[in-house]
Amino acid sequence: MKAHLSRRYLFSASHRLHSEAMSKEENQSTYGKCNNPYGHGHNYIVQVTVSGQVDEKTGMVCNLTDLDSFIEREVLARYDHENLNTLPEFSQQVPTTENLCIHIYEIVQRSFHHAHLERVRIEETMMNSFEYAGEGKN
Fold this sequence. Notes:
Number of strands: 5
CATH architecture: 2-Layer Sandwich
Strand content: 25-35%
CATH topology: Tetrahydropterin Synthase, Chain A
CATH class: Alpha Beta
Distance between the termini: 24 Å
Radius of gyration: 17 Å
Oligomer: single chain
Number of domains: 1
């Protein structure tokens, strides 16, 4: 019997949306106030959804402790209270929430093996959310 488990995590980070491949005017036109040279911050909500067979003994898809400790160690410790622009993964890439969502998905996909990763969803604001489910799944 397959089931899905979704877990939400909170972290705060700042970023500036700016592409070196575009002119000052193009950046301003594309990113608007998010192109502020001093950046801006968000209180992100990350939702990780995994799936798998419900273990007959435990009744769970995976142990929440395993998922929580993995996300704390590999995701929150990396991004919480950071300026995303200064991180290696964004040295050549604009730190949009779309790109952040993809990076978090790849971290979980690569190293969390207690259940199958279905998707990562990030709420940036009350009005904006982004979701990534891997190549060919969307």
